[in-house]
Amino acid sequence: MPRFVSYKNFVLLAILVGITLLVMRFTHVGRPQLTPMETAIKDGLAPVQGVLMRIGGTFRNGVESITSLGRLPEENKALKEQVSLLKGQLYLQEELKQENQRLKQLLQYRDQYKQNFSTRVAAVIGRDPGNWFGIVTLNKGSKDGIVKNMPVVTPAGLVGKIVAVSSNTSQLMLITDPRSGVGAMVQESRVPGVLEGTTSGSGETRLIHVPKDTQLVDGQIIITSGIGRTFPKGVPIGRVVHVSDEPTGLFKTATVAPFADLHRLEEVLVITTVYNPDILPPTEGD
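Structure tokens predicted for Cell shape-determining protein MreC (286 residues):
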């Protein structure tokens, strides 16, 4: 009996091996075509596979969308930070560009009139909020050769004079300060007067003590007269915008708008030495 069972098992094993070899022959990858059964099975399962693929794709996209929604706050924050950084860089570049333009104008003015006087560039580092058109602080002091009463200009015109000095800073009194007084004259007629600041805070000045019979009209240019020797002669100051009679009836007063933009002073030129007080620098537009 055991011998019969062994023989039976051997026959069964041989049949299984034969079937396996036959299946391998008809299903190997390199065969020229599929068997009829494979074709039928694949064709029957194709629609189901397509549906399953679409379902799987939709599920995968949904999972990715949910995952991406979770990352949106972080990505949004990162993008905002990047935009802020780029804006800051643009603002800085624009500021540097404007500063370079201003300094270029100052240096051109200094080089053009270096035979008339020597100057030193100084930056405005402080203003008195209660006296915006009165006193400003510069970043140059006695260690830079700055002393009291030195005149201060920009390429546009007269700004004021130094009234106090420390080692590293100096105080500049603008020509619009009511305490300021500048020897001035009408460029066209050469009629002298005194230019002083006003108490109105308008940023304007006025030319006083001009004889009543003087031809004084709007649009005339006012320059320094050189009287008092504090300010070099011929530095442009401003333009007449209004003329009126003084209460005494003996003189005229002219409201003068400064050429220099005293509202937005950032850099100025301090005149440290005047070589020839009688040489006139040009006025605006020359």
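Confidence is low (pLDDT under 50) at residues 282-286.
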